[in-house]
């Protein structure tokens, strides 16, 4: 259990002259982010930002995962034992960490040598450099859990080429390192056999200049080969289907395409959409669409409202059912309510985007940021 391991043990800290290396250290849980880990990362990132001796941060994971997501099973247990407000505090702190990383004044290099899902994307994709390898597996699987791509995902998914973000966010499709590099989720691709040399070179950096750091990573990088069956080869079909206005129209367009072609990714996408929570699919599509026109802070404020509605379970209790079926009982057979897309109307979707009617609740307060680099200002 997370409580048995101290904050310091869950995030290991190493120092070289001007570089700090943080290692997520819950390998048996695939480095899923506990409340302690989030608090520790927030504390360290805040401290490093004001320390003139720190020029660069490196974030990596121990074992075969970078980070498989937030520890939502622990959140659900907490809510079941009493009050959703405890869950709200978990997400509030996580989203503040995401915002700090997105607007950080010093470069962050995340080494994504393994599984990167959900909350793991939140602590890496917002940072300046994301290094994928042949072991990387990226996914935002939230719609299968009765949740939605949160952690500021409506900001970065909506900025992927074309409508690739809608495809990734709605279907939970798994991307490999080459696909991450192709669509921009990763800034570099470095074979895992070169990671030790890359880290050694980064430890010697005495600069916060992104151009200097990028040049160091470039020395170990290569342009990976996209597999023949990669969905990224079919961006024209993805754009044609996932640009549709509603989830029903997206599904219909995919089914129409599947009659003309036998590509595995299309049948996988159809199956994923049919298995996912109908409510989750509808709020996720609207979230990504709104994200196209919003800064990262606005996205996180909106997503915080949404996740609080999800935890309150007023419109649908799919999050609890999804966690039961996928994470706890593991029967992989969730019973969604409402059970069909057509039963989720616009008024129900609208509720997720409204303020919470509870005296104990308030909108998330993101920290004031100053002296930001141009790359961070552009995100606002």
UniProtKB/TrEMBL annotation:
Give one GO term, molecular function aspect.
3-hydroxyisobutyryl-CoA hydrolase activity
Signal peptide as annotated in the record? none
Q: Which UniProt keywords apply?
A: Hydrolase
Question: Pathway listed for it?
Answer: Amino-acid degradation; L-valine degradation
Q: Name one GO biological process term.
A: L-valine catabolic process
The UniProt entry, under Pfam families, shows: ECH_2
Q: Does the keyword Lipoprotein apply?
A: no
All copies of domain Enoyl-CoA hydratase/isomerase, residue ranges: 19-353
CDD domains, per the entry: crotonase-like
> Reaction catalysed by this chain?
3-hydroxy-2-methylpropanoyl-CoA + H2O = 3-hydroxy-2-methylpropanoate + CoA + H(+)
Q: Where are the transmembrane segments?
A: none
What EC identifiers does the entry list? 3.1.2.4
- NCBIfam families on file: PRK05617.1
This chain's function reads: Hydrolyzes 3-hydroxyisobutyryl-CoA (HIBYL-CoA), a saline catabolite. Has high activity toward isobutyryl-CoA. Could be an isobutyryl-CoA dehydrogenase that functions in valine catabolism.
Family listed: Belongs to the enoyl-CoA hydratase/isomerase family.
Q: What is this protein called?
A: 3-hydroxyisobutyryl-CoA hydrolase
